[in-house]
Amino acid sequence: MSTRTALVTGANKGIGYEIAAGLGALGYRVGVGARDGTRREAAVTRLRDAGVDAFGVPLDVTDDASVAAAADLVAEHAGHLDALVNNAGITGGPAQQPTTVDLDVVRTVVETNVLGVIRVTNAMLPLLRRSPSPRIVNVSSGVGSLTRQSAGDEGTTGPVAVAYSPSKTLLNAVTLQYVRELAGTGVLVNCACPGYVATDLNGFRGVRTPQQGAATPVRLATLPDGGPTGGFFEDAGVVPW
Ligand code: NAP
Question: In this structure, which topology does domain 5-238 adopt according to CATH?
Answer without folding.
Answer: Rossmann fold (3.40.50)
